[in-house]
């Protein structure tokens, strides 16, 4: 499986979408959250997270803007309506899959929150 | 302001050169007169407040994307911020390095995702550029392939067509061969006092005493030629070692080895040239015999010309030999007509009957047609010398073919071709490869030539009065008129110019032969009855078995008595009996059959089919006078105002 394919079909995209649903974040903040909540999303290295973010941006699932903070200028990513819709779709699929596998959906929700 | 912005800008330790920095400077900086090179990832990472190994990681990830400098700069900026945030959060550089990931793999993913961030037009532009570059590379590869294929290809001489040409003559018994006697006669002939190729009426007038003396001096050579003409076969063999002294005398190198090196179309034919010279000298000798009342010499010359005409049609027939044979037979008919007009008493009844029989049975009788058997052979020989051979009858053009192509004159009539331009060692392979690509493949060229030849022969199989415009000639015209097709089928076009007039030559000669048979019959009738007959019908069934046909109208030949003298003529191209009226120029032009000549045309200059531009009078309201020739009558009754 190619790295691109792994990125598209692995847990990284839904995981990042879920994190951004909670509010705008910089790349490092997203990475820091994923380290504890979904380390599989960073299986190709933290720097590859930016490939996920660029992908979301390219598909208008997220927007990015520069903002000045205490650490200097940082690029901050924010979920779009389209991104929310995509997250809802992904969640439904994951719930359906979890139901199929006989697992309570809450387990999935817990894993992502 | 970010941490990276806190770095001093004056650090030039990792600064690239001026040109490199120019390409990595934002437009804003350039407008302000600063060649900052701030888009350079190396400079950017070295100026960041990162440990050297982390800075190197960022550089490798950003630079490895192979994106534009601006995009690399943006990626590096984010990665630097990411690592600075990590350091600020208390992470160790080593831990951050471990978490960063493989820079090459990261660069690949970043490139993949970043390319999708670009706008649609920009992505289309990029795809277009990639496609263009790909096509150009393919084109270059194809050109290189064609050049290599062309320059390394070689023809295969699989068959010895020269041996095929010689085959018929190899088996001729030595006692039956005429060629050794002709050769001796030619070697015995002194140099003619004037240019025999341009032996016209003016030359006869100006140099007659010298010509007559020459002809008498060389009587023994003509006697040898007469003995040769009586032999049953010509028996000429290309590359015969016995011809060496004669060839040496001609300063012509036609050794067997030389003959194998060139296409048969370019085969030197000194024997044909020399036999043509003999024909011209026999013509002069016959004229002398007529003028000086030498009956025996005249008959000898006529019989020699007839024998020579037969010999030239011996062996494998190719266009060149056929036309030479026709010319020889035509000369003999012309002389006989002249003798019957100007000095008929030189020929006895027996001689006339004998000549009539020999003329009527020349080449088997019937309509005289040029045979093409050998022409196919020559074309196949050409193909094997200019194409490769895949063993299945196909192949592509070789450098030898390209070389051959350069020497071809595609003009019709030939002679107006632009001067040859040498391609040179660099251009030649490229042009050769292009020519190889454009030229029809061997099988295709062979098929096209064979189809055209067969169609041409089929269209000209009937008598002249049934001819229509040739679709084969029209097809050849199309090939010649189209720039692409001219290149594509150049081997075919190389063959065809010669075929255009050959069928007409046979018809013209057939008409002249039939008219001369009628002229002999008229003379015999006059001798028997003391006057000319009122019509040609009086000559049948004896001495003429049937009435000769007019090749243009399909009716019996026209005949009338003018001022008590007979006139045998054809209606000519207008198919209309104009009472035996011939323009001095029209008598020749009336035999140049073309379909458009059926209708009247304004006067103009036209090509006469023999490389000359002649004045074509308005309309064609004249006949084609066959006997006596207008020239003979003019000599007997000089009258500059007479049209006849």
Structure description:
The complex is a heterodimer of chains A (113) and B (644). Chain A has six helices and three strands, in the order ααβααββαα. Chain A is of the alpha+beta class and 113 residues long. In chain A, helix 2 crosses helix 4 and helix 2 packs across helix 5. The longest helix of chain A is centred in the last third of the chain and has 20 residues. The N terminus and C terminus of chain B are likely disordered. With 644 residues, chain B is mostly helical. Chain B is elongated and about 145 Å long. Chain B has a three-stranded antiparallel sheet with strand order 1-2-5. Chain B has a two-stranded antiparallel sheet with strand order 3-4. In chain B, helix 5 packs across helix 8, helix 9 crosses helix 22 and helix 19 packs antiparallel against helix 27. At the A-B interface, helix 1, helix 3, helix 4 and strand 3 of A face helix 1, helix 6 and helix 8 of B.
Please state how the strands of the largest beta sheet of chain A are arranged side by side: 1-3-2
Mean pLDDT across every amino acid position of chain B: 85
**Got a strand count of chain A?**
3
Output the radius of gyration of chain B: 42 Å
What's the total helix number of chain A? 6
**Spatial shape of chain B:** elongated
Mean pLDDT of chain A: 88
What is the end-to-end distance of chain A?
28 Å
Task: Tell me the number of strands of chain B.
Answer: 5
What is the multimeric organization of the chains shown?
Answer: heterodimer
Q: Note the main sheet of chain B.
A: 3 strands, antiparallel
Low-confidence stretches of chain A: none
Tell me, what's the shape of chain A?
A: globular
């Amino acid at each position: 499986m190619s790295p691109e394919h792994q990125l598209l079909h692995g847990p990284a995209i839904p995981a990042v979408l879920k994190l951004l649903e909670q509010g705008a974040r910089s790349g490092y903040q997203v990475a820091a959250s994923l380290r504890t909540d979904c380390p599989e999303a960073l299986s190709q290295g933290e720097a590859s997270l930016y490939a996920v973010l660029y992908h979301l941006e390219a598909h208008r699932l997220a927007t990015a803007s520069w903002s000045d903070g205490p650490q200097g200028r940082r690029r901050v990513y924010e979920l779009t309506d389209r991104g929310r819709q995509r997250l809802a779709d992904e969640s439904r699929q994951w719930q359906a899959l979890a139901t199929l596998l006989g697992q309570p959906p809450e387990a999935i929700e817990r894993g992502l929150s | 302001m970010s941490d990276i912005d806190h770095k001093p800008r004056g650090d030039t330790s990792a600064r690239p050169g001026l040109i490199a920095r120019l390409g990595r400077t934002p437009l804003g900086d350039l407008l302000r007169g600063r060649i900052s090179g701030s888009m350079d990832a190396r400079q950017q990472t070295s100026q960041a407040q990162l440990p050297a190994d982390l800075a190197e990681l960022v550089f490798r990830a950003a630079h490895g994307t192979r994106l534009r400098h601006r995009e690399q700069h943006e990626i590096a900026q984010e990665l630097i911020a990411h690592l600075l945030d990590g350091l600020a959060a208390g992470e160790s550089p080593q831990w951050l390095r471990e978490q960063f990931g493989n820079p090459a793999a990261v660069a690949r993913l970043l490139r993949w995702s970043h390319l999708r961030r670009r706008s649609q037009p920009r992505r289309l532009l990029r795809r277009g550029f990639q496609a263009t570059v790909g096509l150009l590379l393919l084109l270059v590869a194809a050109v290189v392939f064609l050049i290599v294929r062309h320059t390394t290809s070689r023809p295969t001489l699989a068959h010895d067509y020269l041996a095929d040409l010689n085959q018929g003559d190899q088996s001729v018994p030595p006692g039956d061969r005429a060629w050794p006697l002709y050769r001796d006669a030619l070697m015995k002939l002194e140099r003619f006092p004037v240019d025999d190729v341009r032996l016209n009426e003016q030359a006869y007038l100006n140099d007659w005493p010298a010509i007559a003396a020459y002809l008498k001096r060389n009587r023994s050579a003509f006697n040898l030629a007469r003995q040769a003409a009586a032999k049953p076969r010509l028996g000429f063999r290309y590359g015969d070692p016995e011809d060496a002294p004669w060839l040496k005398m001609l300063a012509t190198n036609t050794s067997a080895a030389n003959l194998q090196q060139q296409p048969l179309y370019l085969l030197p034919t000194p024997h044909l040239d020399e036999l043509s010279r003999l024909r011209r000298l026999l013509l002069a000798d016959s004229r002398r015999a007529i003028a000086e009342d030498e009956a025996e010499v005249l008959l000898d010359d006529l019989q020699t010309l007839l024998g020579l005409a037969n010999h030239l049609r011996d062996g494998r027939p190719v266009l060149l030999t056929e036309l030479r044979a026709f010319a020889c037979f035509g000369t003999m008919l012309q002389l006989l007509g002249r003798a019957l007009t100007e000095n008929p008493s030189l020929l006895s009844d027996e001689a006339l009957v004998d000549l009539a029989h020999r003329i009527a049975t020349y080449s088997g009788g019937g309509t005289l047609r040029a045979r093409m058997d050998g022409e196919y052979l020559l074309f196949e020989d050409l193909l094997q010398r200019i194409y490769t051979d895949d063993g299945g009858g196909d192949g592509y053009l070789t450098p030898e073919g390209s070389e051959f192509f350069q020497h071809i004159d595609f003009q019709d009539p030939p002679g107006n071709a632009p001067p040859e331009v040498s391609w040179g060692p660099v251009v030649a392979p490229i042009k050769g490869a292009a020519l190889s690509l454009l030229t029809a493949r061997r099988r295709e060229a062979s098929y096209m030539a064979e189809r055209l030849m067969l169609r041409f022969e089929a269209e000209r199989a009937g008598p002249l009065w049934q001819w229509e415009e040739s679709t084969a000639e029209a097809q050849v015209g199309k090939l010649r008129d189209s720039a692409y097709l001219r290149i594509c089928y150049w081997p075919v076009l190389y063959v065809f110019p010669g075929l255009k007039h050959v069928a007409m030559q046979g018809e013209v000669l057939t008409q002249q032969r039939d008219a001369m048979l009628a002229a002999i019959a008229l003379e015999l009738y006059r001798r028997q009855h003391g006057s000319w007959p009122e019509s040609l019908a009086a000559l049948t069934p004896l001495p003429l078995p049937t009435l000769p046909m007019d090749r243009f109208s399909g009716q019996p030949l026209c005949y009338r008595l003018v001022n008590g003298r007979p006139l045998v003529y054809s209606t000519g191209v207008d198919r209309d009996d104009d009472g035996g009226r011939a323009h001095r120029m029209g008598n020749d032009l009336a035999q140049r059959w073309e379909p458009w000549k059926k209708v009247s045309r304004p006067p103009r200059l036209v090509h006469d089919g023999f490389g000359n531009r002649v004045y074509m009078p308005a309309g064609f309201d004249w006949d084609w006078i066959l006997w006596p020739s207008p020239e003979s009558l003019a000599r007997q009754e000089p009258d500059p105002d007479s049209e006849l």
